[in-house]
Design brief:
The complex is a heterodimer. In chain A, strand 12 and strand 13 form a beta hairpin. The relative contact order of chain A is 0.12. In chain A, the strands form 4 sheets. A 6-stranded mixed beta sheet of chain A has the order 6-7-8-3-9-10, with helices on both faces. In chain A, helix 2 packs across helix 3. Chain A is of the alpha+beta class. Chain B is an all-alpha fold. Chain B has 2 domains: 43 residues; 211 residues, Orthogonal Bundle (MetI-like fold), CATH 1.10.3720. The longest helix of chain B has 50 residues. Chain B is flat, with a radius of gyration of 27 Å. The N and C termini of chain B lie far apart (64 Å). Classes of the chains: A alpha+beta, B mainly alpha. At the A-B interface, strand 6 and helix 2 of A face helix 9 and helix 10 of B.
Chain lengths: 369, 298
């Protein structure tokens, strides 16, 4: 049972390029932590530093009470699942699973039992005598998972393990991995997980907490719900959620938010939450939280295009030059009438966020916190 | 209407037949050309085999390769040689050079190539540059300094100068070939092995070497064939007849007889090329895989 902590972790490459800028992260014992971010945000580098595959140039990594910076990957008590499985091509599945245990010079009986247990849990018993090239993508990924599981490590590391699978298989593997995590936790086994992905669906559905990264910095660490409802900054606000949050440029003046040509009254509770008023502000509102209202009572936007998604409709519109998206029910859209070119919108007061345009911070959360 | 249709059909049919016939003629021509050029290339080898069964007088009288009166005399007498040793002794000598040289090359070049391909160390670029420089250096240039060195070590008239340098990764070509092959293999498997607890040696032996298989077979084959054919090396370092490898022994039969017994020489030449041919045909598949996949796939 171990927690993982990164303290001021830094990575600078030979050419002087700084990939990771002194990040701090605590992963609690048994927690499923997802590192998510766009490509090049250093999430994989961070994971590889935890694994010991990448040198640490500053700060420390602790697993349990040990500082593991200088330890070889094999001595860190971790297991890792790679994006392209990285199964040993010349070994049968059985040998792939037991390779780590054989290196530890475990007894034959012990190895056989551990292999059988893992094969049963992951339902790969019929595959034990096959070579990796005879496996499908999903099967290979389960073997890779088994190779991690068999070691009973303190920390599991996953490096985009599902990105090579097709959408259907990815969904089922997602469930399998979360179930496995719950099962390990329930059985009192160590189950601390650090999971890297660029897919926000994976992040939102799998993680106990999510760490959003950008350019080697941590932007926010929070539960999926909190991340969605209370994004700490513009980056998180637009990165999490699909379709992404609408950001409308403007300024807070008095009790109103002024866009380029229109204004809308802000909720008293929101105004109370607001700390210092930013000079340049942006109003953030998710497409689901914009309501259609009668003319004269909201912000006016010109419809550009419409996407029918079945039970709901995505309306893409232009609000004072800013591209926004509104999600409305099919019935509501019908009510607009044929050939409507303009919509009037009012944001749900409780879901409005005000961001400082300069720092990017969500100032409507600051006073709260 | 029907008349026109029938005419059109038969015209189409005729055109199709003409096309088929043209294709067949072109194919026959192609094969005749390929076969005759192939035969031209192989003729010396075929003649060699045929002539080794001829009598000495027939060799020059009959230009064809099928012997009129086949005889195994060339093989029997040739095998006995004009020395106190049979040709078997010379084959054994060749084997004693080839075995340590090939095994040593495979092991040492793998280690050096692994180092260059997977590790960062000071002066790596300079050292790898020198490997490439050695690759371009003509062998002859190092003959004299090497000879002096081995003389001082007291290794003259022994097999050591013939295999020790190669067994210490002295053949830059093989190092380079394996480095290129390794670079094409993704490093993920090795990283997985490290996470599994393997140290660098264990990773090399359990993970890298099995993946290098085809390339290593190519290395061994090349080394085998080049050593079998090496004439200059043994000529310089070996002086006692009892230590001659087959390449030198062939020359021996030319030197020591007053009138050349050509059928014996040809018979022994056939025997000399046999091992290389047999080994090549058995491992052809891996050999081609090894030299063709080097820079392409992982």
């Amino acid at each position: 049972m171990a927690h993982l902590s990164l303290n001021n972790l830094e990575k600078t490459y030979g050419g002087g390029f700084k990939a990771v800028h002194g990040i701090n992260l605590e992963v609690k014992d048994g927690e499923f932590m997802v590192l998510v971010g766009p490509s090049g945000c250093a999430k994989s580098t961070t994971l590889r530093m935890i694994a010991g595959l990448e040198d640490v140039t500053g700060g420390e990594i602790r697993i349990g009470d040990r500082i593991v910076n200088a330890l070889q990957p094999g001595k860190r008590d971790i297991a890792m699942v790679f994006q392209n499985y990285a199964l040993y091509p010349h070994m049968k599945v059985r040998s792939n699973l037991s390779f780590g245990l054989r290196l530890q010079r475990k007894s034959k009986a012990e190895i056989a039992k551990a292999t059988a247990d893992v094969a049963r849990i992951l339902e790969i018993e019929p595959l034990l005598d096959r070579l990796p090239k005879q496996l499908s993508g999903g099967q290979a990924q389960r073997v890779a998972l088994g190779r991690a599981l068999i070691k009973k490590p303190e920390v599991f590391l996953f490096d985009e393990p599902l990105s090579n699978l097709d959408a259907k298989l990815r969904a089922s593997m997602r469930v399998r991995i979360t179930d496995l995590h719950k099962r390990l936790k329930a059985e009192g086994m160590s189950s601390t997980v650090v999971y890297v992905t660029h897919d926000q669906t994976e992040a939102m559905t799998m993680g106990d907490r999510i760490c959003v990264m950008q350019s080697g910095h941590i932007m926010q660490v929070a539960t999926p719900k909190e991340l969605y409802n209370k994004p700490a900054n513009l980056f998180v606000a637009t990165f999490i959620g699909s379709p992404e949050m609408n950001i409308i440029e403007g300024a807070v003046q008095g009790n109103e938010f002024h866009t380029k040509g229109q204004s809308i009254a802000l909720d008293a509770a929101l105004l109370a939450r607001l700390g210092a008023r930013p000079r340049q502000a942006a109003l953030g509102i998710r497409p689901q939280h914009l309501r259609l209202v009668p003319e004269g009572t909201g912000l006016k936007a010109t419809i550009r295009s419409v996407e029918f998604m079945g039970h709901e409709v995505y309306v893409h519109a232009l609000l004072d030059g800013t591209q926004i998206t509104v999600v409305v029910s099919a019935a509501e859209f019908e009510a607009l009438g044929e050939g409507a070119s303009v919509v009037h919108l009012r944001p749900d007061a409780e879901w409005v966020h005000i961001f400082d345009r300069e720092s990017g911070q969500n100032v409507s959360l600051l006073a709260q916190g | 209407m029907t008349q026109t249709q029938t005419t059109a059909l038969s015209a189409a049919h005729l055109a199709q037949r003409r096309q088929r016939r043209a294709a067949r003629i072109s194919m026959v021509l192609r094969y005749i050309i390929l076969f005759s050029v192939g035969l031209l290339m192989l003729y010396p080898l075929i003649w060699l085999v045929g002539a080794s069964f001829k009598t000495n007088s027939e060799i020059f009288a009959n230009p064809g390769f099928i012997p009129k009166d086949p005889t195994a005399e060339g093989y029997i007498k040739g095998w006995e040689t004009s020395t106190a040793y049979t040709f078997g002794r010379f084959f054994w000598n060749s084997f004693l050079i080839i075995l340590p040289k090939t095994i040593g090359t495979a092991i040492s070049c793998t280690m050096v190539a692994y180092g260059f391909a997977r590790f960062e160390f000071p002066f790596k670029k300079l050292l790898f540059g020198s490997v490439i420089a050695i690759l371009l250096l003509p062998n002859v240039v190092t003959r004299i300094p090497q000879y002096l060195l081995f003389r001082d070590l007291g290794w003259l008239d022994s097999f050591l100068p013939l295999w020790v340098p190669s067994a210490l990764a002295g053949d830059a070509f093989f190092v380079f070939m394996l480095v290129q092959f390794l670079r094409a293999i993704p490093g993920d498997m090795e990283e997985a092995a490290r996470v599994d607890g393997a140290n660098s040696w264990q990773t090399l032996i359990f993970i890298v070497v099995p993946m290098l298989g085809p390339a290593l077979i190519s290395v061994c084959l090349f080394q085998f064939m080049w050593t079998m054919n090496d004439f200059l090396g043994p000529l310089i370092y070996i002086s006692s007849v009892d230590k001659y490898p087959v390449s030198l022994a062939l020359k021996l039969s030319i030197d020591t007889t007053e009138a050349f017994e050509w059928n014996r020489i040809l018979a022994m030449s056939v025997l000399t090329i046999l091992p290389a041919l047999i080994v090549f045909f058995f491992s052809q598949k891996y050999f081609i895989e090894g030299i063709s996949t080097g820079g392409v796939k992982g």
